[in-house]
Amino acid sequence: MLDLKKLEAIAEGSDTSNAFFFKADIGKETDIRILPPVAEMNGLFYFKEIHYWIKNKKYISRKTFGEPCVIEEEIEAAKQLNDPDIQAMLDDYKIFSRKETHLMPILHLNCEFSKGELVSQRVIGDQVKIFQCDPQTVIKQITKIATSRHYQNGTEDGMFDMKEGYNLTLSKTGEKLETKYMVQPFKNPSEVDSKYNKINVVEFCRKGLKSDSVLRAAIREMLYGEEITTTREETAKPTTKTKSETSKAKVKKVSKESVKDEPKKLTLQEKLDERKKLNGKK
């Protein structure tokens, strides 16, 4: 089974083991098997993840799950200021970008053939991997194969069935912007071990979602230079207090507020002006 905690560690950069499969892993001939989709994938063999890169950090957007995204809200509000510096930051892909990727649970296979027939297949690493598939051409080709009458087997999961599904060979030619990807199905179905069962990539993706306060702080720090102060608060464990401790805390809070006024809340324009002053801009 997939180790979600291990994958989360990889996503945070604290684990260097390879449980993901990227387009860079596609060689001259790379064999894979896409595992059956879970119910949350709504009948598709992939799950589309929407995310932002902000100063080299990845933040998954709530749009991925059909929910409002605070990063989008902040961007729209910032654009209303009609400031060229803000627009320049939003256009600079080195510090800000919006990306989409398709997540698929797969098995990376080592297949052996004799006279064109599959004689053995081994799962590389003996683990399920998550294919982060960016090229749209790969998705389109797999979709065309999956819907072809030649690969309809009467099972619920079609060509992705564990017993009667089909392996795929991925390949590529060219380099950089000239790279082209090809997908070719095996001519015969094959069975994969049931221990590599359905994996919930939707659940994995949601576990990587940050709170709205963290997302808002990240985009505002980029746009206005606000100091990020929410991360520690979000990760801190809540402590249980007694009634007497809670009462003392309330009294202490009221006494502090009576001595010191709350800081003035700045508008987005005022935040922008403050940042420009610090940077010596008018």
Q: What can you see in these coordinates?
A:
The structure is a single chain. The chain is of the alpha+beta class and 282 residues long. It has nine helices and nine strands. It has helices spanning 4-11, 70-79, 84-91, 136-146, 201-207, 212-224, 231-235, 243-259, 268-278, and strands at 20-22, 30-34, 47-54, 57-60, 96-114, 117-123, 129-133, 168-173, 180-185. Strands 1, 2, 3, 4, 5, 6, 7, 8 and 9 form a nine-stranded mixed β-sheet that branches.
Brief write-up:
With 282 residues, the protein is α+β, with helices and mostly antiparallel strands. It is 32% helix and 22% strand.
The coarse overall form would be elongated
Radius of gyration, taken over Cα atoms and rounded to an integer in Å? 25 Å
Task: Provide the low-confidence segments as ranges.
Answer: 12-17, 231-242, 248-260
- Which structural category fits the helices and strands? alpha+beta
Mean of residue pLDDT values: 84
Order of helices and strands: HEEEEHHEEEHEEHHHHH
Query: In percent, how helical is the residue content?
Result: 25-40%
Q: Between the first and last Cα atoms, what is the distance in angstroms?
A: 57 Å
Number of helices: 9
| Major β-sheet annotation | 9 strands, mixed
Strand % is 15-25%
How many strand segments? 9
Give me some keywords for this one.
282 residues; alpha+beta; nine-stranded mixed β-sheet; 9 strands; 22% strand; elongated
Helices and strands in order:
Elements: H1 4-11, E1 20-22, E2 30-34, E3 47-54, E4 57-60, H2 70-79, H3 84-91, E5 96-114, E6 117-123, E7 129-133, H4 136-146, E8 168-173, E9 180-185, H5 201-207, H6 212-224, H7 231-235, H8 243-259, H9 268-278
